[in-house]
Design a protein that fits this description.
Blueprint (H helix, E strand, L loop, with lengths): L1 E4 L4 H7 L4 E4 L22 E2 L12 E2 L2 E5 L36 E2 L5 E10 L7 E4 L3 E4 L3 E3 L3 E6 L6 E2 L3 E2 L13 E2 L3 E2 L9 E5 L16 E8 L32 E2 L1 E4 L17 H9 L26 H9 L11
Antiparallel strand pairs: 1-2, 3-16, 4-19, 5-7, 6-18, 7-17, 8-16, 8-19, 9-10, 10-14, 11-12, 11-17, 13-15
Length: 337
């Protein structure tokens, strides 16, 4: 077995996250799983950071608000306290470049939560709708990476949330240690699947008909919940199939847990008159609007989507009709006829 290891002090490794272990002729993970491979590999879903902050060919917006509830460094022992690296504002706007590591991110700690908001809602357009950036790094080529994972939830009102069905097929016999690796082909729908410089994308269509209280055509909040990667049953995180999620643990330092860099918007809702969210304001929207005409929230025909911005007043009336007509036959940039 031939291998090369860049050796630094543990403190330097945690500060810079630039350690790359390359193993040739040996694979520390089992046969590849069924999901998309690491960034740069054929079939990967990873989306690179745009080279120019003004490039809107893929990402048309970024999170502009963040609330972070830090988790502890060690969920099984409160004495070390909570993680402390970064600030909520580090999760806003354009992500850090691929050459940077721990700077410009906010760490969540074990089970920590970050809730992001946006200038305009995220829409369910064709393909992926938004992407989340973390700062994982390669430890075993090609698919093995040091990854800190998070569950992803979305909401259209900041109250009711729906979680993407995440799956982890990583083995659960042996705890992945700090600086241990995960094969990306064994995980799906977790933020943090891809290394720094690349976003993990999510498609709202996947949860379109799951929760009547979450409108995937106008998502206003994205919530990330750090995966506690321990195999201890009382503290473990479980995927949508009931599997324990095994990721590097304990990461009991100030930068422990998921390190949020940015959330990029691919499809935006800019036309309130597009009531049904298909990307065009037309007779379908007018029909929905007509059914809610002159209604208030206590009426059975009330539809909050018809109380159009910027005249929200809990009444569907001529003010809303003017908005609808002013956008008649207008289309979103992502609309496909």
């Amino acid at each position: 077995m031939t291998y090369a290891v860049i050796t630094d002090s543990f403190d330097d490794m945690m500060k810079n996250r630039t350690v790359i272990w390359m193993f040739m002729g040996f694979c520390a993970v089992c046969t590849a799983g069924p999901y998309a491979p690491a960034a740069g590999q054929p079939g990967s879903a990873a989306i690179p950071i745009p080279a120019d902050v003004n490039d809107i060919s893929v990402f048309v917006g970024w999170a502009n608000g963040a609330v972070v509830e830090r988790g502890p460094k060690r969920i099984d022992d409160p004495s070390p306290g909570f993680v402390s690296h970064g600030e909520p504002n580090d999760a806003l706007g354009f992500p850090e470049t691929a050459t940077q590591s721990i700077e410009g991110v906010v760490s969540l700690g074990d089970g920590g939560v970050a809730t992001l908001t946006f200038e305009k809602p995220i829409a369910d357009g064709p393909g992926y709708d938004f992407a989340i950036f973390e700062n994982g790094f390669t430890v075993i080529a090609p698919n093995g990476l040091f990854l800190e994972l998070a569950f992803v939830e979305v909401s259209s009102d900041g109250i009711h949330y729906e979680q993407f069905p995440a799956v982890s097929l990583t083995q659960t016999e042996t705890q992945i240690p700090n600086l241990g690796s995960i094969d990306t082909t064994n995980i799906h729908n977790f933020a943090g699947k891809y290394r720094r410089g690349y976003g993990t994308p999510f498609d709202l269509d996947e949860i379109r008909d799951v929760n009547d209280l979450v409108d995937v055509t106008a998502i206003t909040h994205v919530r990330l919940i750090d995966v506690v990667g321990t195999l201890q049953y009382e503290y473990a995180s479980y995927d949508s199939l009931g599997n324990i999620v095994n990721d590097p643990w304990r990461t009991d330092f100030s930068t422990g847990g998921f390190d949020l860099d940015a959330v990029g918007v691919i499809h935006q809702k800019t036309l309130p008159g597009d009531i049904n969210g298909d990307g065009i304001v037309n007779l379908i929207d007018y029909a929905v609007f007509s059914m809610a005409w002159q209604s208030v929230p206590t009426d059975p025909q009330w539809n909050y989507k018809c109380d159009l911005e910027p005249f929200i007043n809990d009444l569907v009336n001529m003010d809303d009709m003017r908005v609808l007509m002013s956008q008649w036959l207008m289309t979103e940039k992502w609309y496909v006829e």
